[in-house]
């Protein structure tokens, strides 16, 4: 395993642990605000109405970040359902 892969995996695990802990740390309103924030960022904001109208070449990093926010929102939603 490379150093980069170790760091990437560690950061992902840390995010997962933080999301799992949030329902015990903050109130329901704050959780909803965090979820809203994540959901607003899970779609690449390019100013286009039609998501298929924009070329995705050169946007791999931005798309990966949006996908990571989507995964975080899904995980938080699950935690909110099971943790409260």
Notes on the structure:
Helix content is 71%, strand content 0%. The mean pLDDT is 87. It is built from 3 helices and no strands. It starts with a helix and ends with a helix. It has one domain (3-83). The relative contact order is 0.16. It is mainly α and 84 residues long.
Q: What is the total number of structural domains? A: 1
Contiguous runs where pLDDT drops below 50 for at least 5 residues: none
Radius of gyration (CA) equals 15 Å
Average pLDDT reading:
87
List the quaternary state of the chains: single chain
Task: List the topology elements.
Elements: H1 3-25, H2 28-40, H3 60-83
Helix pairs in contact: 1-3, 2-3
Short description:
By secondary structure, the protein is mostly helical.
Main traits of this protein?
3 helices; single chain; flat; mainly alpha; 84 residues
């Amino acid at each position: 395993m490379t150093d980069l892969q170790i760091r990437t995996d560690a950061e992902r695990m840390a995010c997962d642990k933080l999301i799992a802990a949030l329902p015990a740390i903050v109130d329901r309103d704050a959780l909803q605000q965090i979820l809203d924030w994540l959901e607003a960022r899970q779609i690449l904001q390019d100013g286009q109405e039609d998501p298929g109208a924009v070329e995705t070449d050169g946007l791999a990093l931005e798309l990966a970040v949006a996908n990571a926010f989507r995964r975080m929102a899904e995980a938080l939603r699950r935690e909110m359902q099971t943790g409260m």
